């Protein structure tokens, strides 16, 4: 299974009154990790969108273990948990500099036509994505 580790620079505006990263910002970090993962596979969201297709989040889960604070180095590890040709589940672990897990989570995505949000088959529309995802899962 392929995993990609991406450094995160904690910005001051991402923190709350308690001095820790506000919980909703972890979803942004998930997206940063997911984009880095896709680019590591040699793929591009931009190219997908140019083809009239988008990949909305249809489900998100997060579990908070410990806070990340402003100025603290953070890293997000991203991988594919499940993929069936239509729906993709990405997994995430956000860690501090010592490797302690701060947040875990998953997001589910489908690939849809931009104009009507009808689901499409990745296998048929983007066979290169399909093969790359199978390879990242270790199914190839």
TrEMBL record:
User: Keyword Ribonucleoprotein, does the record have it?
Assistant: no
SUPFAM superfamilies linked to this entry:
Thioesterase/thiol ester dehydrase-isomerase
What Pfam families does UniProt report for this protein, alphabetically? 4HBT_2
Q: Which family does it belong to?
A: Belongs to the 4-hydroxybenzoyl-CoA thioesterase family.
Record key words, sorted = Hydrolase
Q: What is this protein called?
A: Thioesterase family protein
Keyword Hydrolase carried by entry: yes
* Organism from which the protein derives: Natronobacillus azotifigens
Under InterPro entries, the record lists:
4-hydroxybenzoyl-CoA_TE, HotDog_dom_sf, YbgC/YbaW
Task: Please give one Gene Ontology molecular function term for this protein.
Answer: fatty acyl-CoA hydrolase activity
